[in-house]
Amino acid sequence: MALIGFVIGSIINLFWANSVLYWLLTYLGIAVFIGLTAYDTQQIKLLSQQVQDDATARRLAIIGALKLYLDFINLFLLLLRILGSRDD
Fold this sequence. Notes:
Strand content: under 5%
Helix content: over 70%
Radius of gyration: 17 Å
Number of helices: 3
Distance between the termini: 37 Å
Shape: elongated
Order of helices and strands: HHH
Number of domains: 1
């Protein structure tokens, strides 16, 4: 739900261009992607305990790595918004 709200808020801010909403969405996005990283890690852990053959384990590893990669990339981009802003 929070991820969907983040996406909808980002789309609204594309048209509205409000700086307060921009920063609010940035901090909300960081919280959302930290939570998603923890959730995805736990899901991978639980599913890896239930896998019985090698083919399924490989598929799970690829999908899990992709999920965590997307979480980390989005988290990095949001942190870069905060830490990388220059006021020239």
